[in-house]
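Quick one: structure tokens for this chain, please?
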Amino acid sequence: MDDESKGHIKRFTGVASAVVNETCLTCHNRSNHAGWEGSVHEARNLACTTCHSVHNPQSPERQLVKATETQVCATCHRLQVVKTERAVAHMPVREGKMTCSSCHNPHGSISNVKNLKIGSSVNETCTSCHAEMRGPMLFEHAPVRENCTTCHDPHGSSNDRMLNVRLPFLCQRCHVATRHPSSVYDNAAITTNKSNRMFGRSCVNCHANIHGSNHPSGQFFMR
């Protein structure tokens, strides 16, 4: 190959990430890649070759620079990946049933935050699988309607049902009235009353439909 023909091959070594991305985007500019320009990863000066390798891929799919998608994401998002190991119950990501890209589009999103693939909010992404939690409900629980992550950590938690804080203390973040249900959990009352609401499903022993109720008398989410 003579010197002239060598000049027609772009070498990505030592060039700016914008030059690398511009080359890749000449073809990969549709579908899942349409939101790359202006995305969070582009703003952080990442290049396509940060995650992908054309000539020396380590994964059987997507030509990734590491063996699995989770390992690639963990390069930067260590906290989120570590959380997947904290789940006390089953964790689909850890078990290989889901990947980060099941919920997120690493190439950017033009309709929502956090590079989510579905809908324009966190709740729309969650209810795309957890359809039983989708409203509208006759009686709606405000935190549920606002954001699923108010109570749950989707990346994993040491608490049951991937709750941010174990019950009943999660409920007490908002329900801090001087009467039921807060007072029975306050200070020494936890042990002196020996309340069964401190154990098991706690508050949801009674308030079973805490995500919302369609029952005519379900304003307290008990049925």
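Residues 79 and 102 are 18 Å apart (CA to CA).
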